[in-house]
Request: fold
Amino acid sequence: MTFIIAIGGKKGSGKTSLSMYLAATMDCMIFNQNHVGELFQKEETQKMVYDNRGEYVFRGIEGDVSKTYSFADDLKNFLHESFGIKDAQLYGSDDEKNSLTKYVWETLPAFVRWTNSPDRSLYRCFDPDHIEGGSRELINSITNDQEFFDAMSDGWIPSSLREGRLTARELMQVIGTDVGRKMFHSNIWVDSTINRIKRDKPKIAMIDDLRFCTEAEAVVSNGGIVILLSRNNESTDTHGSEKDLENLTINSDRIISIDNNCDINDKNKQCLDIIQSVIKNELMENIKYDFSQQI
Reply:
C-alpha cells in the first residue's frame, strides 16, 4: 500500500524544495556505525547525506522508495499540449511562471475577470448625484456566477475587471480553479492524481503542491499525512488557490503544521523528524528491508 505525504502552503512557502529534499532522502536511507536509524541529506546534492558524528554505513533499498507527484501535473500537461505554454513557464522560476502568455483576460467571463482582480469593487448609481459603493462584506460574499449575476440584477455594477495578457501562473490558476474545479468538479485534479498514484503503486507518494482543503481531505482519507508550511502568509495573491487552506477545518493528527519562518536546514530537520517517525511506524512493512535489525 502506498503512503502519501503531501506538502501544502502558499506560493513561495517552500513546498517544492521540501518535497525534493524529502523524496531524495527517502531514496537514500542511511545508517551510521552506531546502528541508529537516521535520515539525512547533504546540502550539496540531493542523494547524499551529512552528520557531524562521523562515518556512515551506506545501506541502499532495492528500487526507488518514493515518487513525486503534483496535483497540477495533468493541468500542466494540458496547458503545454493544448495551449502551447512552454515547460519553463509551467515548471520554472517565479519569473518564468509570471511571464506573459498570448492569452488575454478580455476573452474570459466577467465573473472570472472580476473575482481575480485585487481591486475588485461594486457600485450602483441611483442618480447622477448618488453613487453607492458596495461594502467589503457584500463583495466577499459573491463566490460564484449566480451570486455575481444576482448582484447585477440588484443594480450593482462590477468594476476593475482584469485586462491584458495573462501570465502563465494566472492561466494555471484560471484553467485549474475557475474553470476545472468550479465549472466541472472540485476534485477534478485530486481524483486524477490519486488514480495515478494507485496505478503506479510507489511505496511513498510525495505530493508537492497541496493548496486546497479538498486535496487535504483526499490525502487524509487515503491514509496519508499533510505537512502545512506557514511561510509567506503575507502573500498578496487574491486567487482562491492561494487562500483556500485558510479555511481548513479537518481535526486530525495527520495534518501537521510547520512554522517554517526559519532557514531551510531547520525546516528540513523538523520535517525529517516527522517523516522518520512515519517510516518507522507505518512504512516498514512496505519497504523490503529489515529495518528492525538496524535499530
Observations:
- Residues 217 and 250 are 7 Å apart (CA to CA).
- The chain has two domains: 3-77+183-294, 94-167.
- Confidence is low (pLDDT under 50) at residues 29-63, 288-295.
